[in-house]
Each structure stands twice: as structure tokens, then as C-alpha cells.
TrEMBL record:
<dbReference type="GO" id="GO:0050660">
    <property type="term" value="F:flavin adenine dinucleotide binding"/>
</dbReference>
<comment type="similarity">
    <text>Belongs to the acyl-CoA dehydrogenase family.</text>
</comment>
<keyword id="KW-0285">Flavoprotein</keyword>
<dbReference type="InterPro" id="IPR037069">
    <property type="entry name" value="AcylCoA_DH/ox_N_sf"/>
</dbReference>
<dbReference type="InterPro" id="IPR046373">
    <property type="entry name" value="Acyl-CoA_Oxase/DH_mid-dom_sf"/>
</dbReference>
<feature type="domain" description="Acyl-CoA dehydrogenase/oxidase N-terminal">
    <location>
        <begin position="11"/>
        <end position="122"/>
    </location>
</feature>
<dbReference type="InterPro" id="IPR036250">
    <property type="entry name" value="AcylCo_DH-like_C"/>
</dbReference>
<dbReference type="InterPro" id="IPR009100">
    <property type="entry name" value="AcylCoA_DH/oxidase_NM_dom_sf"/>
</dbReference>
<keyword id="KW-0560">Oxidoreductase</keyword>
<feature type="domain" description="Acyl-CoA oxidase/dehydrogenase middle">
    <location>
        <begin position="126"/>
        <end position="230"/>
    </location>
</feature>
<keyword id="KW-0274">FAD</keyword>
<dbReference type="InterPro" id="IPR009075">
    <property type="entry name" value="AcylCo_DH/oxidase_C"/>
</dbReference>
<dbReference type="Pfam" id="PF02770">
    <property type="entry name" value="Acyl-CoA_dh_M"/>
</dbReference>
<dbReference type="InterPro" id="IPR013786">
    <property type="entry name" value="AcylCoA_DH/ox_N"/>
</dbReference>
<dbReference type="GO" id="GO:0003995">
    <property type="term" value="F:acyl-CoA dehydrogenase activity"/>
</dbReference>
<protein>
    <submittedName>
        <fullName>Acyl-CoA dehydrogenase</fullName>
    </submittedName>
</protein>
<dbReference type="Pfam" id="PF02771">
    <property type="entry name" value="Acyl-CoA_dh_N"/>
</dbReference>
Amino acid sequence: MARLAQTAGLTDVQQEILSTVRDFVDKEIIPVATELEHRDEYPQQIVDGLKELGLFGLMIPEEYGGLGESLLTYALCVEEIARGWMSVSGIINTHFIVAYMLKQHGTQEQKDHFLPRMAAGDIRGAFSMSEPGLGSDVSAITSKAVKDGDEYVLNGQKMWLTNGGTSSLVAVLVRSDEGHPEGTAPHKSMTTFLVEKEPGFGEVRPGLTIPGKIDKMGYKGVDTTELIMDGLRVPAARVLGGVTGRGFYQMMDGVEVGRVNVAARGCGVAQRAFELGVQYAQQRHTFGKPIAQHQAIQFKLAEMATKVEAAHAMMVNAARKKDSGERNDLEAGMAKYLASEYCKEVVEDAFRIHGGYGFSKEYEIERLYREAPMLLIGEGTAEIQKMIIGRRLLEEYRFQG
Ligand SMILES: Cc1cc2nc3c(=O)[nH]c(=O)nc-3n(C[C@H](O)[C@H](O)[C@H](O)COP(=O)(O)OP(=O)(O)OC[C@H]3O[C@@H](n4cnc5c(N)ncnc54)[C@H](O)[C@@H]3O)c2cc1C
């Protein structure tokens, strides 16, 4: 085996894309990632490079100027990028989810208006479900849209927008009671609005404020923000799909592909942690030999590599299932759950292998140690994945007695 996490059955085009991305990661991302992360600096040069490679349009259909590639190709690229620096994969992830939602659910006018510029990376997307009082329980959303002529007026506060400052298009999920009688199930009275704005902070459009960056433990470089809507007026033509009441389903569809993406990030970070651990273990000597020659360390490396392989296989399986047109919520939930848990464990083992040096900011593993926990939370916590998996299992294995 040449290296871990190989994928059988890729086309020549997929192999070429992946080798270009891997090369870019090795040359342009890994050498600068830790320094930029410590300064919490936005990686503008890297983003420009990704734009040039066409990665912002990887899954956008060719008719809109994208590369029209599959979810599998996208996920494998994300795995490579996260191996270099997880924050960079975060920059393309919300963009990818919004482009996917537009492709699947947008009106023709919305696709024509947004997708070509999204493919070029000139419009960049963020998506916003969470609020200060909720994350897992999306049905409890309190932000609201009220119809006023040909427009909707939006009020409320959103939380945790990845790319909230740097994006120019935000897909925002709010409650829209208009047209839905009293007592309608919460998920049937939600609507996704496509909100265009200027990148930056402060009042970026009348009625819309992005207060500033949230100071985070890891996942630095990429901006995470709040979003405040105070009488924000959005034309009715910017209701995703043109019809209210479908937002919950549209967002859940987006999150489902997002979960494959988070699994891919977990795979990439775990691979990098393994690489760092296996290298360090052969350089550091104790009791007269490299620590890699102590069986306890070899066992650690064996466990780490097995987890990297298992997570990769599940992530690839979930992506292929979606690409084949089948429902993949079970596979995506399992892949996201397993890959994020394994990632945390592999990173911790690599940290332990580094001994005291793992605690020093000079060593890359220190950064990975602060980054891995975000994967346990984003796109649904482990508990939420297990709820999805459990429900689906009871559907599949219904008791027939
Ligand atoms: C860095 C970062 C970036 C993010 N980016 C985005 C983004 O771009 N857009 C966006 O919309 N959101 C984003 N989020 C929000 C993220 O999706 C939520 O944080 C996540 O869904 C969890 O929600 P919460 O934080 O409100 O936790 P809560 O929902 O309050 O959960 C707290 C704890 O309770 C558990 N729990 C909740 N309900 C149950 C239950 N029924 N049974 C058992 N346990 C339960 C959870 O698993 C968790 O352990 C981001 C978050 C972070 C940290």
C-alpha cells in the first residue's frame, strides 16, 4: 500500500483533479497554514489559488460555468484540503452547500442569476440556520419573515455563520407564517431566503448587520459570525424555489451533502495527524531506540491507520450513494459520526506520540488538536447523527410480529 485512504474506481479526470489539489495543498497550504492560523488571518492567497483551480464551481453544472463534478470528487478534494488546513475546507463548504441548494431547489431565474458567478468564486455563499437559542433543534427557529407587497420583511438574530463576513450571498432559514394556517407543523412554515449583501462587517445592507468575528478555540482564519436582521427587506423573487414553506426540507437536503463534506474533513485531518505521528515516532528516541520501535507506539500507529482507512471507506460509500441518486441520510449520518469521532481519537494519539512537544505551538499537531473538536459539533452533533441513524434503522428493520 503506497499510502492510506486510496479510492478504487476513480476516472482519469477525478485522478487528475485530485493530484492537482494534493499538489496545491502540499505546496501552497501546508507550509503556511499554522502561521496563518496562529495569527487568525484569512488565507486570501490560498482562496485566490482555489478560485483559479475552479474549486468554487466543482459541483456546479457545466452549463453554468462549473466543472459539473460529482459529490465524490468534491468530498475527495475536501479531504485533501482539510489535510492541509481544515479552515480552508470551511471556506468552500458553505459555498458548496448554497450552490447545491440553488441547483436542486432554485428557480431558473435564481440559477441563472447566481450560479455562474458562484462557479467563478465571485459570489461566495454562507448558510444560516442556527440562532443564539438553538442549533440542533431547527424547528424552534424564531427569526421571522412577514410579507409586505412584493417583499418580505425579516427580523431576528442568527448565530454561527461560517463565512458570515466574507460571503456575499447568505441562504437564511426563517419562519414565514404567511400562507400557512395557525397550527401548521413548524417545519412546514419555514422558508429559505437568498440574501445578497456586501462582504465585510457592520451594516452590510440596510436592515442587515454582521457584528464581527467570533473568537474561536480553533478553525481560525475562516470567519464565523452572527447575523442580525432588523427590518431587512428581501424581494419575493429571492425566496428559494419561489414558494414559501419549503425551507426546512431545502436546508436538510443541503445539510445532508454537508455531512459527507464534514466526514471528508475528518478524514483529511486524521490523515495529517497520522502522517505527523508516524514521522515523529521514527525520529524521537527513548531508551535507546526510536519510539516507533516500542510496541505500545506501534499499536497506536496501527489503530490510527485503521481508523483513517475505515472513516475514508465510509465517507466514500456515503458520497457514492448520493451520486447514484439514492437517499443517503443513513450513510451520511454514519460517515459523519464515525469520521469525526475517529478524527478526534487519531489527533489525540498523534498528540500523545509527540510527548511534551505536542503542547508547543511550534508543532503542527497543536493546531490539529484545537481544530478536531469542531467536527464533533458542525452539521449536527454526534447525538443528532445517532438520532438520524437510529430512526432509519427502525424503518429498515421494522418488527413484523
Ligand atoms: C465553528 C462553528 C461553525 C458553525 N457554522 C455554522 C453555519 O455556517 N451555519 C449554521 O447554521 N450553523 C453553524 N454552526 C452551528 C452548529 O450547527 C451548531 O452549533 C450545532 O448544530 C449544535 O447546536 P448548538 O450549539 O445549539 O447545541 P445544542 O443544540 O444546544 O446542543 C447542546 C448539546 O445537547 C445535545 N442535544 C441536543 N438535543 C439533543 C437530543 N434531542 N438528544 C440528545 N442530546 C441532544 C447536543 O448533541 C449537544 O451535545 C457552527 C458551529 C460552530 C461551532
